[in-house]
Amino acid sequence: MIHRYLILSVLLFCIGIVGLISRRNIIIIYMSVELLLNGVNLALVAVASHLQSSDGQIIAMIVVAIAAAEAALFMALFVLLFRTRRSLDANIFTLLGGRRD
Question: Chain centroid to CA 61: how far?
């Protein structure tokens, strides 16, 4: 039964990698990173459940808490970038430290 969960976690991870590589919108890139994290969390929980241990579930909960804080930071960054450049296309953000016009 664990192999089904691991296949699903690998599928989520692969979809996240494809979205990370192929898309240029920063919000889509962020959602792809979240898919990567969810794939890893699913694998951790599945293996922990199979081994009848709670270590993987505890680590997954810590990762979810960190991802929630990360979401708040990324949303603030998205607003800031959209206000300055009027776009969320990753191709125009070559240098975040300053403007080179």
Answer: 15
